[in-house]
Amino acid sequence: MSWVERLQSIFVAAAALAGLGIGLISPLGEVGQYVVIPALLVMLTAVFMQMDASHVGEVRRARGLVMVSLILNYAFTPALAWALGSGLLGDQPDLRIGLLLLLVTPCTDWYLIFTAMARGHTGIAAALMPVNLLLQLVLLPIYVLLLSGEAAMVDAGTLAEAVLLMLLTPLVAALGLRWAAVRLKGPRWREQQLNQWASRLVIPLLCLAVLAMFAWQAPVVAENGLEILLLVPPLAIFFMVLPVVSTAVAWLLRLPGPQRVTLTMATTARNSPIALGIAVAAFPDRPLIAVALVVGPLIELPVLAVLSQIIRYRGRHHTTGGESTPSSAQ
């Protein structure tokens, strides 16, 4: 994990503050509306370019983990997200939808980094990425419409168009670039050059999108600063509950150590970049929804970093039978 990735939450927070300052003291903030979606589309293309569908076969080696992961991510988590939003954000419909968009989208990128740091099974973790991406593409509009109710105030067609724009467009572009790279330069060049460049672009583009969005919506953020703080309790509860639940389920199923780690990371990490893109595209006139999705990673990333270190520390002292060896975790 590079130092840039370790400090991602700090960079995102700095971009948000810089954008807020630009939007409040200069007229340049209005330019942000033309930057947000293009930056997110390019960023997601870079994320998807690093995905390798060849890992999907790994799921056969851990059907129990995969099944539990799907249940936790697509049944338990939406129910928990709805309960947290209804219970703690009942009079804040935009923040409630933002929370929902964040929590019902399992991560398809950086959870791999934290899985590797905690010595989880990275092969199975990589195999879950395309599965989660496909399920998000299908289920996200359904979750928003069913769980947000009248608060969503958006029709199914508009939401589906936003999901297709922000998920399908970069996915197709990434697949096309991967195919072209292999045909023109070979698979080794794609892995060593194209994928590395793609990985370096993700965080700068995310920060650019966050800066542009906060510059564009600076007056709205300034007027609703106290309301935004209401997101902290439900996010804190979520990121405490999910690791405990996933770890408990993994122990009940007697999953091997690396698989326990993978399940914890795959069910705790959320997909804020994709959710942010969908929020901007589907709710352009409701900026608080998108702002909520920037607050999420500021809590999530430090939690994942600490969680990976705790798991790794405990693994050194409590694993048996070679579960924590590097060969079994790959």
TrEMBL record:
It holds the Pfam family SBF. Belongs to the arsenical resistance-3 (ACR3) (TC 2.A.59) family. The chain crosses the membrane at residues 7-25, 31-53, 65-85, 97-117, 124-146, 158-177, 197-216, 228-253, 265-283, 289-307. One of its GO terms (cellular component) is plasma membrane. This is ACR3 family arsenite efflux pump ArsB. It is found in: Cell membrane. It comes from Garicola koreensis. InterPro entries: Arsenical-R_Acr3 (IPR004706), BilAc:Na_symport/Acr3 (IPR002657), Na+/solute_symporter_sf (IPR038770). It is a multi-pass membrane protein. Its main location: membrane. GO terms for molecular function: antimonite transmembrane transporter activity; antiporter activity; arsenite transmembrane transporter activity. Gene3D superfamilies: 1.20.1530.20. Keywords: Cell membrane, Membrane, Transmembrane, Transmembrane helix, Transport.
